[in-house]
Design goal:
With 123 residues, the protein is an alpha+beta fold. It has one domain: 2,3-Dihydroxybiphenyl 1,2-Dioxygenase, domain 1. Helices cover 16% and strands 38% of the residues. The chain is built from two helices and eight strands, in the order βαββββαβββ. An eight-stranded mixed β-sheet has the order 2-3-4-1-5-8-7-6, covered by helices on one side. A hairpin with a 4-residue loop joins strand 2 and strand 3. The longest helix has 10 residues. It is globular and about 45 Å long. The chain starts with a strand and ends with a strand.
Length: 123
């Protein structure tokens, strides 16, 4: 099972203060729109997302089909196949991707400690 690029999506109170804080740690804006209150920042292969007012708590994020540079992978496990594998193992999903669709989709699950995990395929 290939989960793709990994990042931590942080819910922040003030996108500008958070941006400055992480810039001091060596992160640079990679993509996003600060006017929409979201940014993706990188420090080498480490990726974090800053999201103001979009989520209730921090999220572990995987992007099937992408590497850490948001570049398309030639080979990857489609999100619907990942979902089927997890369901077959008895993993409870909070939300599900439409298994009859193709292309972009997402689903969420929760680990035993209440951490939300988002699998979000963009293509």
């Amino acid at each position: 099972m290939k989960l793709g690029a990994f990042s931590v999506s942080l819910t922040v109170k003030d996108i500008n203060k958070s941006k400055s804080f992480y810039e001091n740690l060596g992160f640079e804006v990679f993509m996003g729109d600060i006017t929409q209150k979201w940014l993706i920042m990188k420090n080498e292969s480490s990726v974090i997302g800053l999201f103001q007012g979009m989520f209730d708590k921090n999220i572990l994020t995987f992007n099937p089909g992408w590497n850490e540079h948001a570049e398309n992978l030639t080979s990857f496990t489609d999100i619907r196949d990942i979902q089927k594998q997890l369901k077959a193992k008895g993993v409870n999903l909070l939300t599900e991707a439409d298994e009859t669709s193709s292309g972009p989709a997402n689903f969420t699950l929760e680990d035993p400690d209440g951490n939300i995990i988002l699998l979000d395929q963009h293509r």
